[in-house]
Design goal:
The structure holds 5 protein chains of 5 kinds.
Chain B lengths: L6 H9 L7 H6 L13 E6 L14 H7 L8 E3 L5 E3 L2 E7 L2 E6 L13 H12 L16 E8 L2 E6 L6 H4 L26 E7 L3 E6 L12 E6 L3 H9 L5 E2 L8 H5 L4 E8 L2 E6 L9 H10 L2 H9 L3 E3 L24 H10 L6 E7 L4 H16 L2 E5 L4 H9 L7 E6 L20 H11 L4 H17 L4 E13 L2 E2 L16 E2 L1
Parallel strand pairs in B: 1-10, 1-11, 15-16, 15-17
Antiparallel strand pairs in B: 2-3, 4-5, 5-7, 6-7, 8-9, 9-10, 11-18, 12-18, 13-17, 13-18, 14-18, 19-20
Helix pairs in contact in B: 1-3, 8-10, 9-11, 13-14
Chain C lengths: L1 H26 L6 H6 L5 H11 L5 H13 L13 H36 L4 H15 L2 H15 L15 H36 L1 H8 L4 H38 L5 H10 L3 H29 L1 H4 L2
Chain E lengths: L6 E11 L11 E12 L4 E5 L6 H9 L6 E6 L4 H4 E4 L3 H4 L6 H11 L6 H12 L15 H13 L5 E5 L7 H18 L2 E5 L3 H7 L2 E6 L2 E7 H6 L4 H9 L14
Parallel strand pairs in E: 3-7, 3-8, 5-6, 6-7
Antiparallel strand pairs in E: 1-2, 1-4, 8-9
Helix pairs in contact in E: 4-5, 4-6, 5-6
The chains are: A mainly alpha, B alpha+beta, C mainly alpha, D alpha/beta, E alpha/beta.
Chain lengths: ~280, ~500, ~325, ~325, ~260
């Protein structure tokens, strides 16, 4: 069956690919050393003194900082999502599979965890451990766990109600087999959608934390940090407050669009609707 | 530990008014008084850091003294904005060798109406000196030279020192040397009772603190009826508040990048004061490669002071070469900036000679509460990278800095901090001090200098001390930032020097 | 409904206890001894021990936990070891900033999201609907603090209409207080509104697909009449359930926004308390925020049940 | 014979580029009960929705629908809503989802009365109670205050029917009204529907895939396949002498209830119903038909007067 | 014929507890199946009819062994119930894992039950038996029509060579024109493999067509159990009578014509 790709998938794919590309390029090359201070040429405008996007309050190259910032952003996104998936998916899967007391326990714990706003958790973590990228990633990742567990449980329960699972149980398929053979493959798309959405939220959360000085440590380029530093210079160099924000916004947009697109692509209801009308 | 190195001093730059020349303004303004229109009599001052408590002996936060010392609380003496010792509760005093006799004003009354007596001074000083009653504000060293405090009569008190101390009287102007009432000390944290020209009215946490004129003041009464301190942490917001009329004065200007705008605007007056404080990159002299003089010298030479002064203070700072700054509070200052000039090539050679030609990695712990420290870290990282030294940053909150770097395990290589305290060069005589500089000869010179009543020989000795510290490249000495204040154009008599720990507003008024 | 409220309330109590244990454990693993932080350079072993005793740190953990929880139940939130100020009144006072901020933000979000979302849902195939939903998607991608920065840069720095931050106390100048809250509420509300718009839109789209909407039109109602009489009420149910989640993220947004605009609210207090290692305040604040989220979720849950007779009956 | 109640000419329903209903003609005689038979995807529901002007967004109806001398497709949206629920009404398949879950049953039944008859709230409520009595809902007074989820499936469908007959419509379209119900309930609902229609002289269009129901209720029948009407005529005539191979195949594929098949096997139609837009050109049934010849690749017209059929090779 | 039946169901009752509506409310129970007695012999075909909620599907789950009855006993006399009792459901979309190919689906029971069969030969046999092309093996369920999906489900049920086939409304989700194909297939397979068949349907004509014996269920109970022919001619229970009367009958039928 041939289907038109959802436009959000294309737009999101392009944006995400762009971020990934920039991050990859930045690991080998940036126009200048992003941490190189050049006070004499600070606050250069666009194109001035050879700074394509200008320079910041310490004379660092804005473009190089942005490129290197993409690297940080992607790293945070990947690590948090991996943490959340690695913990949340098995928990949700087991809850759906076994039900009963286990499910009850998993759900209650995740209810309580959900009551902690992710950022509050991250602030707590920053206080308990040293503020830094690792702490931020761990906090955000843990904050995501309940939502993954819930989504996987919800989708898993639907799978468990399907007749093919009943048939498999009729043959005596064990929990492990049900999980590997039926549950995980069928909630896979849900996980992918959730992961892209989580990725977008992680980017936002990291930016907020870095802005507060609780995320990425200075010395490592980060969009949130750049915005924090730019705030003092809004009157002199308003663009310093625009570039990193745009980068954050576009990356988040990219991942949200990608998530939407994948959902549209995989949503059986939509497929049904297309076939019906 | 004898070091009087406290939060207050660090925060004076970070959180308090950096004042400047004020006395001249004060006199000049007197004639301009009202011609019919209603005189404004409430002054609103923007303050970056809110005090944590209103008891000047409670803890080391600089803004406690900034707002309350000389306004609400008084001491035996006070410091002028430029660091001269002026009479306060002690209207006069004599020194005979090691013994000071202070004559107290008989008219002073506490804000609760009880009379002020010499007993109150003895209570305050004994409390500060006795380890079991000593309040948390850690200025024990101010009373270190003191042998005993005796009440001669209700209005005379005698302080006997162990030996002559050049710095003793100066320190009696500090916030923690405020005289507190034994009857109200327990509640001073929230309802301060002092003897000063203003009395406390209200404290709206997170927003403002209000003082009103003490009409029963024993001395010259304040000219303002009311003073409101508004707490605004963000420098841009602070500047905006002044621009939009929400403030009459900024206690201290952090957003120096906007200073030009105020300077060119006739509605405002910018007061540039003396340089105050010593911003240094502290080197842990006991840590591995940093024990090597060549390495320390190399680090010093890798730093371009002009970059820092431009990048952080937009030019409002002067370079320093040793642990002293050119203001009247440190009269012994000499210029030592040529001892370790900016020279990356030589820095690289020195590192090569020390065996670190192939690279060196150092840990840097800037203090995240202070913008200068964080910005300095970025510059330092870049500059050291140029000479082949890799820096890994781990910012710490000030509280953590105190616990882990200043007093704690001291497991660090470099940190960046502003030593705002005046006349604190004595710390180089203490081998346990957090930079771990162990030089017994220099320690001897320091003791000798403090006990020397003769200004010429004392200053010569202090000059030798400053040079030695610079030559040993104990720390990287960067700059002394100017004290800066901005007020509305019609504000007169605003103190604009920051050698004094207080923002004394009794002489301030509107034109 | 009665037993339902009771059982939900029981669930809330269990969640609150679990949350308090979690917070207490996390906070009390904080490295660094609060006593030595307070004493700073003047710390002597004797003084440390004395202060610890004064702060009750020498007691076993469970005693301290029970005292903490017991105190809170009596409205006593303890005294900050740093400022020596009772935390309870402090929090109450900060609430005079944070509560209006959260309420204002919610209000802005609702005012933005409900009409725009409904319009986008009704016209989801037409250009105007697509534009709205694209805008809301864009709005979702904007970090609240960046929105704040942009608003500052426009309204405060360029136009100089409002201060770029800080707060004038209500008692001093109520109008000034409102002015200083205007931009923060806008920054918070616009971003939240963008998210909410998406939910309203999809709820309206979903409801239009429902069979009963076709039935309504079969009775002779026009498309618009059907939406007004049947559609919006039904669309409100999923939107209300989402409001709970929204409020959680609103609280998070407020913490950041208070930092951007330098507003002396709970968020700034929390941030500073963490910096000062003010354990008592941190512990109280996190508990309070968590409790707020849990209570809000409960209220949302109950009101959603009130709205829907299918669930009300059960 | 009076003028027909409804006359449909060349009706097409377009889903984007695809024709889901491909030119349909039929006439509903005044007071007649007509069955519209077809499998899923044959276009029968879309035909009904086109008549009611209830097509989902993005679907377009073309052709002519004549009602009382007016072509409905040329009326304004307002005029059509005025007819809907008053003169033309419809009963849907799924009575749970077709009722507003948040509104009391009484208010829903009263809605068409308030809208078209401008009755006051109390009048409408009184009428609603009468209507519920008429559809034999037990405890009508109590039921007025009930929400849809508190009723059983059969009761909900009675409510739907009450709404549909509230304004004594000219034409009532019932789309699979009993498919979601149990067999015993189905019989009651069909009996109710038939009785009401008979009493009021309402013209009924009953859409179903169940041939037995049509044979019980309807005097006329239309057979749809692949978006076209392939056979039409009086029910007895069409069922006992089907002329289209598809109609015959359908009838033969149903296991008889009253007798055992001699060989135990049913006549089966090969293949499956194609999806939308996948029907062959020409006669839509030709790929599954045993009588297919080359001429079947052009579309046969409906031919015949009382019992027309669209087939190149009709059964005699 | 063996003397003892394959399935011996005696006094079986199954209750379900509804989820708690609140911590204080007592959990309500519904009795899905109540005191049911049934026998099923080899090659028997039994129809289960009744309204929705009568307990037909629950009874099938009990026969399949997914859960134990609360009261009474179900005795299976064969060797290996998991292998020998297989099921076909109503909605083939829900019954096939969309992420597995037809080959994987059909062969899955052999893997789970660890049956040593030559997989590819068996696959071809099964596809042939249900009338699917062999090329179907590598495709996914969504590529097939409803009738074909039901054939896949039947192939899977046949894979482990069952003795009993349970069918829960196997044709009610299918188009009318496709129903006959599946009914004929079930008819043929039953005869070919000598399967015992338990067929649940609300459509009495389907049951009549495929089953020798019919059990009428009402509110969890089997109210009447008879040979098909006699049930239609002489129903005894009032509910059965009502059910039979309610069935819409085709009033006219084309007269049988000579086959083409």
């Amino acid at each position: 069956m041939r289907r038109r790709l959802p436009p959000s998938l294309l737009a999101g794919g392009v944006l995400v690919a762009l971020v990934v590309l920039v991050a990859v390029v930045a690991t080998i090359w940036t126009p200048r050393n992003p941490t190189q201070v050049d006070v004499v040429r600070r606050l250069s405008g666009i194109g001035q003194n050879g700074f394509l996007l200008g320079s910041d309050q310490l004379g660092r190259d804005e473009l190089s900082l942005l490129m290197a910032g993409a690297r940080t952003t992607l790293l945070v996104g990947v690590v948090t999502v991996v943490i959340a998936v690695a913990v949340g998916v098995p928990l949700g899967g087991l809850a759906a599979l076994f039900g009963g007391a286990l499910e009850e326990a998993v759900m209650r714990v995740s209810d309580v965890l959900l009551a902690f706003p992710a950022l509050v958790l991250a602030i707590l973590f920053a206080a308990v451990f040293r503020p830094g990228t690792v702490t931020a990633m761990a906090a955000i990742g843990i904050a995501f766990v309940p939502s993954f567990a819930r989504v996987v449980r919800g989708a898993g329960l639907q799978v468990m109600e399907q007749d093919y699972v009943t048939v498999a149980r009729g043959w005596g398929s064990g929990p492990l087999r049900l999980m590997v053979r039926h549950l995980l493959p069928n909630v896979g798309s849900v996980i992918i959608v959730q992961a892209t959405v989580a990725f977008a939220i992680a980017i936002l959360a990291e930016a907020s934390l870095s802005y507060l000085g609780l995320g990425t440590t200075p010395g490592t380029p980060s969009w949130g940090l750049m915005l924090a530093e730019a705030q003092t210079y809004l009157a002199q160099a308003p663009l310093l407050g625009v570039w990193p924000g745009l980068c954050i916004g576009l990356s988040v947009l990219g991942f949200s669009l990608l998530g939407d697109g994948i959902r549209d692509l995989l949503d059986p209801r939509l497929v049904e609707r297309m076939a019906q009308t | 530990m004898t070091a009087g190195f406290t939060r207050r001093e660090f925060l004076r730059w970070g959180g308090a008014g950096v004042a400047g020349l004020a006395a001249a303004e004060l006199v000049a303004a007197c004639g301009a008084e009202g011609t019919g229109r209603v005189r404004k009599d409430t002054l609103t001052v923007g303050i970056v850091q809110e005090p944590t408590s209103l008891d000047p002996t409670a803890d080391a936060t600089a803004s406690i003294a900034l707002l309350l010392r000389d306004n609400v609380y008084e001491g035996l003496v006070r410091l002028s904005p430029n660091g001269e010792v002026l009479p306060q509760l002690a209207t006069s005093w004599q020194r005979q060798d090691n013994v000071y006799t202070f004559h107290l004003t008989p008219e002073a009354r506490w804000h609760d109406g009880t009379p002020f007596t010499a007993q109150d001074v003895k209570f305050s000083f004994d409390r500060a000196m006795n380890p079991s009653t000593r309040p948390p504000n850690p200025h024990a060293d101010y009373w270190e030279p003191v042998q005993s405090v005796d009440v001669v009569d209700p209005h005379t008190i005698r302080v006997t020192l162990k030996e002559y101390s050049f710095n003793f009287l100066f320190h009696m102007g500090a916030g923690s040397a405020s005289i507190v009432s034994p009857r109200t000390i327990a509640t001073d944290a929230t309802h301060p009772i002092g003897t000063g020209p203003f009395r406390f009215q209200s404290w709206n946490h997170g927003a403002s603190l209000t003082l009103v004129r003490n009409d029963a003041y024993w001395g010259r009464k304040a000219r303002l009826r009311k003073v409101v301190f508004r707490f605004i942490t963000d420098p841009t917001a602070m500047n905006d508040a002044l621009l939009t009329g929400g403030l009459d004065a900024i206690g201290q200007v952090e957003g120096t990048q906007q200073l030009a705008a105020f300077k060119s605007n006739p509605r405002f007056r910018v007061m540039e004061g003396q340089p105050v404080g010593k911003v240094i990159v502290t080197i842990n002299n006991a840590s591995g490669p940093l024990r090597d003089l060549r390495v320390r010298r190399a680090l010093s030479r890798a730093v371009n002071r002009r970059s820092w002064i431009e990048g952080i203070w937009n030019g409002y700072a002067v370079p320093i070469g040793s642990h002293a700054c050119p203001n009247q509070g440190e009269p012994y200052y000499i210029d030592t900036t040529s001892i370790n000039p900016y020279d990356p090539a030589q820095a690289r050679q020195l590192l090569q000679a020390a065996g670190y030609g192939s690279g060196l990695t150092l840990r840097l712990a800037p203090i995240s509460d202070f913008a200068y420290s964080m910005q300095g870290a970025e510059i330092l990282q870049s500059e050291l990278q140029e000479v082949g030294v890799k820096v890994t940053q781990q910012p710490v909150r000030f509280a953590e800095w105190l616990a882990t770097i200043f007093t704690g395990p001291q497991n660090f290589d470099l940190t960046i901090v502003d030593h705002v305290e005046e006349r604190d060069i004595g710390n180089y005589g203490n081998p346990a001090y957090y930079w771990h500089y162990d030089n017994p000869t220099l320690a001897g010179w320091l003791r000798q200098a403090d006990a020397d009543p003769d200004q010429t020989s004392r200053n010569a000795l202090y000059a030798k001390i400053q040079r030695t510290i610079a030559e040993d490249a104990v720390n990287i000495f960067v700059a002394s930032p100017h004290s800066l204040a901005v007020t509305a154009a019609d504000v007169r008599g605003y103190p604009s020097g920051a050698v004094s720990p207080s923002l004394y507003l009794a002489d301030t008024y509107f034109a | 409904m009665g037993p339902l409220i009771l059982s939900r309330a029981a669930g809330l109590v269990v969640a609150l206890v679990a949350a308090s244990v979690l917070i207490f454990v996390v906070v009390n693993v904080l490295p660094g001894d609060p006593a030595s932080v307070i004493l700073g350079t003047a710390a002597t072993p004797g003084a440390l021990a004395q202060l610890r005793q004064q702060l009750g740190l020498d007691q076993p953990a469970w005693v301290r936990y029970l005292e903490w929880v017991g105190g809170m139940l009596h409205g006593d939130f303890g005294i900050s070891p740093i400022s020596r100020i009772p935390v309870g009144p402090e929090i109450l006072q900060k609430l005079t900033v944070s509560a209006p901020l959260a309420l204002g933000g919610t209000l802005v979000a609702l005012v933005v999201a409900i009409p725009l979302g409904a319009l986008a849902g009704i016209r989801h195939r037409r250009p105007s609907g697509v534009v709205i939903s694209a805008l809301s998607l864009g709005g979702m991608a904007v970090p609240a603090f960046w929105a704040g920065l942009l608003l500052i840069s426009l309204f405060a720095v360029r136009l100089q209409l409002v201060p770029s931050g800080g707060f004038v106390p209500w008692s001093q100048d109520p109008l000034g207080s409102l002015t200083s809250l205007a931009l923060p509420c806008l920054a918070l509300g616009l971003v939240q509104g963008a998210v909410l718009t998406r939910y309203v839109r999809s709820a309206v789209i979903d409801v239009q697909r429902q069979d009963f909407m076709r039935t309504a039109r079969a009775q002779g109602l026009s498309r618009w009449q059907a939406l007004v009489r049947h559609g919006f009420r039904n669309a409100a149910i999923p939107v209300v359930t989402v409001l709970g989640i929204q409020l959680t993220s609103l609280i998070v947004g407020a913490v950041v926004i208070e930092n951007v605009f330098d507003l002396p609210g709970l968020g700034l207090l929390l941030f500073q308390a963490v910096g000062n290692r003010d354990l008592v305040t941190v512990q109280d604040l996190v508990m309070l925020l968590t409790a707020a989220v849990l209570v809000v979720n409960l209220v949302v849950d109950l009101s959603y049940r009130l709205l829907d007779p299918r669930i009300r009956a059960r | 014979m009076s003028a027909p109640a409804l006359e449909v000419r060349g009706l097409q329903v377009l889903v984007g580029e695809t024709e889901a209903v491909r030119g349909v003609d039929f006439t509903l005689e005044q007071g007649a009960r007509t069955g519209l038979i077809g499998e899923s995807g044959s276009g029968k529901t879309l035909t009904a929705l086109a008549v009611m002007d209830l097509l989902p967004d993005g679907l377009v109806a073309r052709g002519e629908i004549w009602y009382r001398g007016r072509d409905l497709l040329r009326l304004s949206e307002r005029e059509r809503s005025r007819l809907r629920g008053d003169r033309l009404t419809m009963v849907f398949q799924e009575p749970l989802s077709a009722l507003d879950p948040l509104m009391r049953v009484g208010d829903q039944v009263a809605e068409p009365l308030r809208l078209h008859r401008r009755l006051s709230r109390t009048e409408a409520r009184a009428r609603a109670r009468e209507l519920l009595e008429r559809v034999q809902l037990p405890d009508p007074v109590e039921r007025l205050r009930a929400y849809p989820h508190q009723l059983s499936g059969g009761q909900r469908q009675r409510v739907m029917i009450a709404m549909a007959v509230a304004c004594s419509p000219d034409i009532l379209i019932a789309d699979e009204p009993t498919t979601a119900l149990d067999v015993t309930v189905q019989a009651e609902i069909l009996a109710l529907l038939e009785r009401l229609v008979r009493e009021e002289g309402t013209t009924l269009l009953l859409i179903t895939h169940d041939l037995a129901i049509v044979s019980q209720v309807c005097d006329q029948v239309l057979v749809m396949y692949g978006g076209r009407i392939v056979e039409a005529g009086p029910t007895a005539e069409v069922f006992s002498h089907p002329r289209h191979p598809y109609t015959l195949a359908l009838l033969e594929a149903i296991p008889p209830i009253d007798q055992q098949l001699p060989n135990g096997r049913l006549t089966q139609i090969p293949g499956a119903v194609p999806g939308l837009g996948e029907f062959p050109s020409g006669c839509p049934f030709r790929t599954r038909c045993l009588r297919e010849t080359s001429c079947c690749s052009t579309m046969p017209e409906m031919a015949g007067t009382s019992h027309p059929v669209a087939c190149w090779h009709p059964l005699s | 014929m063996s003397s003892s039946p394959l399935f011996e169901v005696r006094g079986v009752t199954k209750r379900y507890r509804l989820p708690r509506t609140s911590v204080f409310a007592r959990r309500r129970e519904i009795v899905a199946v109540s005191r049911v007695d049934l026998d099923l012999n080899d090659s028997d075909s039994l129809g289960l009819v009744g309204d929705s909620g009568a307990g037909k599907s629950t009874l099938l789950r009990l026969l399949l062994g997914l859960e134990p009855p609360d009261e009474g006993s179900i005795r299976y006399q064969g060797e290996w119930r998991r292998r020998e009792v297989q099921i076909v459901f109503q909605d083939p979309t829900r019954a096939l894992d969309p992420r597995m190919t037809v080959a994987e689906i059909v062969l899955e029971p052999l893997r789970v039950l660890r049956l040593r069969e030559p997989m590819s030969t068996r696959l071809s046999e099964l596809l042939d038996a249900v009338g699917l092309p062999r090329a179907a093996a590598d495709r996914y369920p969504h590529e097939f029509s409803g009738g074909q999906r039901q054939r896949i489900a039947i192939a899977r049920a046949l894979a482990p060579r069952p003795r009993v086939l349970l069918a829960d409304e196997p044709v009610s989700a299918l188009d009318v024109s496709v129903r006959a194909q599946i009914l004929n297939l079930l008819h043929d397979l039953r005869d070919l493999y000598g399967l015992a068949l338990v067929l649940v349907s609300h459509d009495l004509s389907v049951v009549r067509h495929l089953c020798d014996r019919i059990a009428v269920m009402h509110r969890g109970e089997v109210v009447e159990q008879q040979q098909t022919q006699s049930l239609f001619t002489a129903p005894t229970h009032p509910y059965t009578v009502r059910l039979l009367e309610a069935i819409p009958r085709l009033r006219w039928r084309p007269s049988p014509r000579p086959s083409e």
